[in-house]
Amino acid sequence: MTTTNARPAALDKGGRRRRPGAFTRDRFENGFFGVARWVVIVGLVIVTVFPFYYMVLLSIRTLGDVLGNPGALWVDVGELSLKAYTRVLAPVASGGEGFLGFMRNSALLAVGTVVLTLAVSIPGSYAVSRLRFFGRRHISALFLAVYLFPSILLAVPLFVFFTRVGMRGSLVAVLLVYVSQTVAVSIYMLRNYFQTIPVSLEEAAALDGCSRLGTMRRISLPLAMPAIVANGLFVFMAAWNEFLFALLFLVDNRDRWTVSLGLSQLTGNSIEIPTTVLMAASVITTIPIIVIFFASERLLTEGLTSGAEKG
Known about the structure:
By secondary structure, the protein is an all-alpha fold. Helix content is 68%, strand content 0%. The chain has 14 helices and no strands. It has helices at residues 25-59, 63-68, 83-89, 99-130, 136-145, 151-164, 171-194, 199-207, 212-223, 225-241, 244-250, 259-268, 275-295, 297-302. The two termini are 45 Å apart.
């Protein structure tokens, strides 16, 4: 007795045997979407990367070359110049724009905002998602209600308040405003993620003798690490790029300016400031965000399996 492993011939809708290699709808759709996917990916990469590439290219060329051929998309190595970056980073006393100090101020504000916001939002969001207390169902709506008020509506009262207490022009005042602006949405975002973590994991840890804080530290936080890192990136970018409150509180003291204020000052003096210097300042402002994103990309997925249940 013999057996055969031959596969049955495919049949079309009419029940007829389909010829090998025949043109079918499935083959057309697979081929079309296979090509269209790469076309869309390449198009999105070009649209995203090209503006930044052109900005970098303008910043490393001399002003004469830019005026002579502004549309050039490639230049020789001998034409490259870092004079624009030197001028942007050099202190004002040396004829520069002082962006090194601006970046230091922005870094202090952004990192401080991330640390304080996460220190408040992590336990707050965990409490909202796990504990039972009066008004728990309405607290998320109250958090989102904070963003019903535009920032410009709060600017004048905050300006008057910090002026009267003598904190106008202080980085601490700006830091407090940034934290108050970001902590509500951070609690809301992290609460939604904590709710996706199975309660059974925490119950198992409690049976093993873990306290509430121990369960949070050993089980919930490792699993929530992607959301925490993503939330930290969001807060950092919001604090790094913020302009309104930095302008209100720090405009009188140039030594405490942020990169957004410094870049605005260069843009306002676009007639006197060369295009190459303006592009160099824009690149310097953008690079920290890109570097931090790629440096923390691994942490976004690292917590997906940390603290999981043993099978």
